[in-house]
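Reviewers of the previous submission asked for a worked example of the structure-prediction workflow described in the proposal, so we include one complete record here. The input consisted solely of the amino acid sequence. No template or homolog information was supplied to the procedure at any stage.
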Amino acid sequence: MPRILTYNVHRCVGADRRLDVSRVAEVIARLKPDIVALQELDVGRARTGGVDQAHQIARQLKMAFHFHPALRVEEELYGDAILTIYPERLIQTGPLPGHPAIPRLEPRGAVWLSVEIEGKPVQVINTHLGLVPKEQQLQAAWLAGPSWLGHPMRKGPSILLGDFNATSSSVVYRTLCAKLAAARRLAPTKSATSTFPSTLPVLRIDHIFVSPEIKVEDVFVPFDQLTRTASDHLPLVMDFSVT
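From that input alone, the workflow returned the following structure tokens.
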């Protein structure tokens, strides 16, 4: 059964303020996923030792990966990635709209792969929305529009996941639920899925949304000493099948 997870890795700086890329990779490896969506990766940034975190994690997991830099500062990059063991093809990457009245907000983006699972293409979109509610609403509407979820290539089995910085009572959540179903609500067994902050998770701001062709078998959040420490978010994990 395929397993996918979304994980905001906080540039691999843990709740103990220690930078440790291998520790993040260990969290993921223990969960044995087939597809991984990561947010807040540093690539070549001085603040995290100039390491290509996307490449290092993918190498440790023996996965292919595609990284999209939402932010570029000369040679330094910061953004999101999808990793997988399956045959994959990059469909597109791109920025999300910002708030026109607040131009200095951190840039946000999305990355979309077509992943082949048992001969079936599954569309996987990873994103990380902003912090300001109006900004998030603009970004969610953009994702729901013709460039992403409404794109002609976004047909059949599809998964949208990431850090949405918004709870299930938000406009963002309702906007995306008009296009895809919330995986948590489809899971046969209901378990706690709050992911932030990792030390005492009370907010459910990381989400997975699925098309009708994705059968949700389980959705859960691993909560142990390693996951509590490795990042400021916990991973959100989904087991599924493709119908």
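The radius of gyration is 16 Å. We consider this example representative of the routine output the project will generate in years two and three.
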